[in-house]
Amino acid sequence: MAGRKTLTVPSKFLIQASRAFGLSTSRLIQGGNPSNTWLHRWIYYLAAGFMFAAVFLRSILSYQTSPLLGSILILLSGMLLAFMGSTLLANKSPWFQALLIGLEVLVILRLLILTRTDYFAFLFAIQSMQVMQQFTSRGAAVSIGLTTLLTFMALYQQFGIIYTLAIVVVFFGGSVFLVTYIGATRRASLIEEQQQELVAELEQSNRQIESYSRKLQQLVAGRERQHLARDLHDSVTQTIFSMTLTTQSALMLMERDPQQVAAQLDRLVQLGISALSEMQVLISELAPEPRTSEGFLASLRQHLTERKRLDNLMVSLDVEGNQFLKPAEETSLFRITQEALNNIVKHAGVTRAAIHLHLDSQPRLEIEDEGTGFDSQKPIGSGQVGLVSMQERALEIGWRLRVDSSPGNGTRIRVEKVPGGVKQP
Fold this sequence. Notes:
12 helices
C-alpha cells in the first residue's frame, strides 16, 4: 500500500515563484531610469534653443543698421511665442498645436521672402523636430519635404538654382539627422513607458499569485486535515470502538463468568497493539520520506488476517488479472475496503464477507456481505461518515462508487475505474 501523496508542493512552488517573480519585477523597476526621458527632452530643447539663438544673433549682426531689423525681431519673437505655445499645449490640444506649428512655418517663410537670407531656412529644422516630437514620423517626413520645397522656392531667384540646391541639401540633411534623433528618443521614451506599465501589471500579477498561493496553502491544509480525520476514522477510531466494546464485555463477564475475562483482556491487548500499529502507519505516511511497502495485495491479505483474529470476520479474497494500479489508487482502495469491513462488523450482523478484485482492462473492487442491509436509495447524509469517506476517496482517484443494498438482503459495494475519471462535484 502506497503512502499518501502530499499536496503542499504546488503551493510551495507558487510561493517561491511569486517571491522570485516579485524580486525580478523590483529589479526591473529599479533598473528603469525615468531621467532618460527628461534628458532626451532637454537635448531637444537645447538643440532648438541653440539654433534659434544662432539665427537671432546672426540677424542682429547682419541687420543692425538695416530698417528690416525691427520686422525681423518681431517675426522671430512671434515664432518663439508660437514654439512655446505649441510646447505647452503638447498632448492637450493637438489641433491648436498644429495651428501654432503652421504659424511658425509661415513666419519662417516670411523671413526668407523678406530678407532673401539663407540661414533663416535652418529654423525649419526646429519646426520639423516639433512635428516629430508631438505627432508622427510620417508627419515629420511631410514637414521636411514641404519646408524643403518652400526654401527652394523662396531662395532660388536670389541665389540661383545651383546655390539654392546646395542650401536645400544641407538643410535637408540637417533636418533629417535631427528628426531621426528625435524619433529615436521618442520611441525610447514610449518603450520605457510601456515597460513601466508592464512592470505595474507584473507587480499586480505577482500580488495575485501570492494571494492565490496563500489561499492554496489554506486549502491544502484543510484537505490534509480532512484526509487525516478520514484515516483516523477508517482505522484507529474503529479499533478503539472495538476496544470499548471488549472492555464493556469484560466488565459484564466479571460478574457473570470471571473465567472468560482473561480472553476478553487478551483480545483487548491485541486491539491495543493493532491501534498502535495503525497509528505508526499514519505517522509514517505523514513523514516526508517515502516508506517501504509490502505491496497492495500483501497489505490487503494481512489486514484480512487481522480482521479474522480480532473481529472473527472471515473474508474471502478473489483476485483476477495483474494490471498495476497507481499508488494513490492502491491507498484509496485499501481504505475503502477497510471502512467497508468496519461497517460489516458494526452493522451487518454476519461473520462472513467476500472481496472481488478485478485487475484487468476495467479495474474494479467489489465487497459483499449477506447481512441485514439498509436502504441504499436514501441519499448519503452526514450521519453516514463511513459511506461519505468511501465516496470521497473514490472521487479523488477518479473512480465511481456504487452501493447496492436493501433491508434483509445484504450489501454490495462496487468501486470501478471510469475512463477519463469522475469529475468531483
